[in-house]
From TrEMBL:
It is found in: Cytoplasm. This is Serine acetyltransferase. The keyword Disulfide bond does not apply. Keywords: Acyltransferase, Amino-acid biosynthesis, Cysteine biosynthesis, Cytoplasm, Repeat, Transferase. Pathway: Amino-acid biosynthesis; L-cysteine biosynthesis; L-cysteine from L-serine: step 1/2. Its EC number is 2.3.1.30. One of its GO terms (cellular component) is cytoplasm. GO terms for biological process: cysteine biosynthetic process from serine. GO terms for molecular function: serine O-acetyltransferase activity. It comes from Mycetocola lacteus. It catalyses: L-serine + acetyl-CoA = O-acetyl-L-serine + CoA. Its main location: cytoplasm. CDD domains: LbH_SAT.
Length: 177
């Protein structure tokens, strides 16, 4: 929990204290609720896991299926409207904004949601659909619709999203195309 509070304070310059984050940040509450739901899910308590996830959804506006796997230091900023599907796998140090969907494209059994690599940032309203992989340290632009794999260090923008290479300025952490 402390790590989650630190992560929120690192990613949100408006966060004034850990107390404020723990009390008021719906993204943090959703992650905490998911951790409980996921633990129940893995132990075979499917109904209580789903019930808890729906209560968290009602309270936060963020829907994370209990089967989804979330990495450490995962932060949802603003959160409302985020949907993360059952077979989604999210790496460590991932940041997502409101309205993001990590969804499926089929009704088939098995892996049908995306895998998000470590250190990925996903902009507001982005949709990442299907059993695809987004490579580590990539960025998905706001409102992009991603339906194909992307290599590490990619910038994905547009509808449908196209892959661009990220170039990092050695002086600032900003991304340039």
């Amino acid at each position: 929990m402390r790590e989650d509070l630190r992560t929120a304070r690192t990613h949100d310059p408006a966060a004034r204290s850990s107390f404020e984050v723990g009390l008021l940040y719906s993204g943090v509450h959703a992650v905490w609720g998911h951790r409980l739901s996921h633990a129940l899910w893995r132990r075979g308590f499917k109904l209580p896991a789903r019930l808890n996830s729906q209560i968290v959804r009602f309270l936060t506006g963020i829907e994370i299926h209990p089967g989804a796997q979330l990495g450490r230091r995962f932060f949802i900023d603003h959160g409302m409207g985020v949907v993360i599907g059952e077979t989604a796998v999210v790496g460590d140090d991932v940041l997502i904004y409101h309205g993001v969907t990590l969804g499926g494209k089929s009704l088939a059994k098995g892996k049908r949601h995306p895998t998000i690599g470590d250190g990925v940032t996903i902009g507001a309203g982005a949709k990442i659909l299907g059993p695809i992989t987004i490579g580590p340290r990539s960025a998905v632009g706001a409102n992009a619709v991603v339906t194909k794999d992307a290599p590490s260090d990619s910038l994905l923008v547009g509808v449908p999203a196209k892959v661009r290479k990220i170039v990092t300025d050695p002086v600032t952490p900003e991304y340039f195309i």
